[in-house]
Structure formats: structure tokens, C-alpha cells
Amino acid sequence: MGIDPRIPVGTSGPVLDDQSLERYRKIYREITQELDEAKRDNDHARIMELEKQKEAFSAEIEGATGLGGRRREKSDPERVRKNVSNAVTRAIDAVALEHERLGKHLRNSITSGSAFSYDPERDPQWLV
User: Fold this and answer.
1) Which range of residues forms the domain containing residue 105?
2) What is the pLDDT of residue 1?
């Protein structure tokens, strides 16, 4: 069964838009050039400051891109939770078509909300 690939998993766009990402990359390159100059001038205070800035921009760029420079998407937790909840409900409905008692047990034992839980009213005694 699984999750239907046609249903959006819940993103709300890229972490950084194209303009912002390119601006961050440009600033990163400028900082790298300034850092090289500071190293040539042996300016330790400037080196420390530029390394902090470079690290910060590097973290932002890495957070916005994945392997191979692919864009990362922001997740929308409520949409993801709702999609997972719907997928679980569909799976239980499919189980119930094949095994009515098991479907009823799952409907009564699985709760959703901010977290999913399986809490049966009593031991289902599957092997009895």
C-alpha cells in the first residue's frame, strides 16, 4: 500500500528563493576574498570576524541546498500531519475490507494528533 505519490507531502516552497540564494552565494564569495586578503595582511582580528561570517553564510547555503546543490523545501508540519493521518486512515480502510475485525481494532486503537499512538483497549491476542 504505502503513501500515494500523487498527494503532496506538505512543503511550502524553497528554504531560500533563487534571488536570496544567489545573493548569499555572492556574499560568501566576497567574504572568502576578504578573508584571503586579511590572511595576507596577517590581520588576526579581521580573520576571526570573517571566518565567523563565512561559517554563518555557509550554514545558510547548506541549509537551503542538498546533495548536488538541489534545493531544499520548507516543510509545512500541519499539512504533513494531515497527509499522514489521511494515509493511515486509507490504510486502515483497506485492511478492514480484507479483515473486518482487524480494521475495527485498528480504528479503535490508533489515535492521531500531534503524534500518532497505538493503544489497544485490551490485548488483541492475535494467536488465539
Assistant:
1) 77-118
2) 46
* Backbone torsions φ then ψ of 122, nearest 5 degrees: -150, 165
Nearby residues of 11 by Cβ (< 8 Å), 6 or more positions away: 73, 74, 75, 76
Which pLDDT value is given to residue 81? 76
- Asked if 59 and 18 sit in the same domain, the reply is yes
Q: Name the domain count of the chain.
A: 2
Phi, psi of 73 (to 5 degrees): -110, 145
Q: Which of 38, 55, 74 is the last residue of a domain?
A: 74
Run of H or E including 73: strand 73-75
Name the residue with cell 546543490. Answer: 69
Question: What confidence tens digit (pLDDT) does each residue in 63-72 have?
Answer: 788 777 677 7
Instruction: Name residues of the chain where pLDDT drops below 70.
Output: 1-15, 69, 74-79, 126-128
Domain assignment present for residue 2? The answer is no
In this predicted structure, what is the pLDDT of residue 74? 67
> What is the spatial distance between Cα 102 and Cα 92, in angstroms, rounded to a whole number?
9
